[in-house]
Design brief:
Radius of gyration: 30 Å
Strand order of the largest sheet: 3-4-2-5
Structural class: alpha+beta
Helix content: 55-70%
Order of helices and strands: HHEHEHEEHEHHEHHHHHHH
CATH topology of the largest domain: Multidrug efflux transporter AcrB transmembrane fold
Number of domains: 2
Number of helices: 14
CATH superfamily of the largest domain: Multidrug efflux transporter AcrB transmembrane domain
Largest sheet: 4 strands, antiparallel
CATH class of the largest domain: Mainly Alpha
Shape: elongated
Oligomer: single chain
Strand content: 5-15%
CATH architecture of the largest domain: Up-down Bundle
Number of strands: 6
Length: 380
């Protein structure tokens, strides 16, 4: 294992997250502009469960294709251009699903009979789903209320467990994840179904978990460095480097099954329902891992640096060797050692020598932690 990967694995990296926080803010702002713009001008492709309508599912045969299904709709005076016709794969064979807006009962029954005759099956083999628009509005309102209640309970818990500034940062990060995930559906034109809403609530839980892991380490290090003159940027830098490998492992372990759902479930076996669910999960997992490091924690740092305790230390950050010393010893490097480290940063031999000297000094300080005994006076 090379030195870089070994340091990452052991949580010994010295990445300056706080110093580069505006890169993350800028990228998120650009992403939000694109996704919100798509939501405003293009909107969402709401499924039948939200906007209401009628859906028929009929076994696919050589006589019934997508083109012939649209001809059946036109024969019953339904605009085929606005209809959504897709082929669904399953273990029993392929089926064709036709989805249109709300229709009269006689029109719905006529299309069912025509599709059965075209496919060569009985009318009972053609399933019909009819959802009113009022029921769809009710589902939408319940989903929004559930989201608001989730935000409220989460903010109360984080404010009680940590502090209210961490609660604000976590809520902003989760709102960022929701907007980006929903905006991705708008950009790609994928249909929003109840399974999509469930996936959105699932990714909020993952985003919250990753943020809480980082905040817990930040809180521990803030107590650890309470007696030292350490800036809050240093505290968050040290904390995020310590949990970076854990965040990467968690995200990778969560993304791999979702990718398999997309590739195998939707791509190989043709399960469109899995595609709708897995895509929301994939986008949410990626944005959740990103926001916990580049949104939630930098936003917390910006708020904490306004406190009187940290206001005078803004701009003082330990980088490279200084961050390593701060992490291992719990004390910031002195100015003289900082100048030596900066001058000899490119010399590996000097850097190794400094590490040996620092280690020896720490051992000596540990051994000689007690005061020396006074010498006895000699008798004359």
């Amino acid at each position: 294992m090379t030195g870089r990967w070994r340091r990452l694995y052991n949580g010994e990296t010295t990445i300056d997250f706080s110093g580069r926080r505006w890169w993350g803010f800028g990228f998120s702002i650009a992403l939000l502009v694109v996704t919100v713009g798509s939501l405003v001008f293009q909107g969402l492709n709401l499924g039948i469960d939200f906007k209401g309508g009628v859906a028929w599912e009929v076994p696919s045969t050589k006589d019934l294709t997508i083109e012939s299904a649209r001809e059946v709709l036109e024969a019953n005076k339904i605009e085929a251009a606005n209809a959504k016709v897709q082929i669904l794969g399953s273990g029993d064979g392929e089926r064709i699903r036709i989805q249109v807006g709300e229709q009269a009962p006689e029109v719905r029954d006529a299309v069912q009979s025509n599709l059965a005759a075209k496919s060569g099956v009985e009318s009972a083999d053609v399933s019909v789903s009819d959802v009113s628009s009022s029921w769809g509005r009710s589902i939408t309102e319940k989903a929004i209320r559930a989201l608001l209640v989730f935000f409220l309970l989460v903010s109360i818990y984080i404010a009680w467990r940590f502090e209210w500034k961490m609660a604000i940062a976590a809520i902003v990060a989760m709102a960022h994840d929701v907007v980006v995930s929903v905006g991705a559906y708008s950009l790609l034109g994928f249909e929003v179904t109840p399974a999509t809403v469930i996936a959105f609530l699932t990714i909020l839980g993952f985003s919250l978990y990753d943020t809480i892991v980082v905040f817990d380490k930040v809180s521990d290090n803030a107590n650890r460095f309470a007696a030292q003159r350490v800036s809050y940027a240093d505290i968050t830098n040290v904390s995020m480097n310590q949990v970076l490998m854990r965040s990467l492992n968690t995200s990778l372990a969560a993304v791999l099954p979702v990718v398999s759902l997309l590739v195998l479930g939707a791509g190989v076996f043709g399960a469109v329902a899995l595609q709708e669910f897995a895509l929301a999960l994939l986008v949410g997992l990626l944005t959740g891992a990103y926001s916990s490091i580049f949104i939630a924690t930098p936003l917390l740092t910006a708020m904490k640096e306004r406190e009187p305790k940290y206001r005078t230390l803004v701009g003082q950050m330990s980088l490279g060797v200084e961050m390593t010393q701060l992490t291992t010893t719990g004390a910031p490097a002195s100015r003289r050692s900082s100048r030596i480290a900066a001058r000899n940063e490119g010399d590996p031999s000097v850097r190794d020598e400094q590490e040996l000297v620092g280690t020896a000094a720490q051992r000596a300080a540990t051994v000689l932690s007690h005061p020396p005994r006074p010498r006895k006076k000699r008798k004359r």
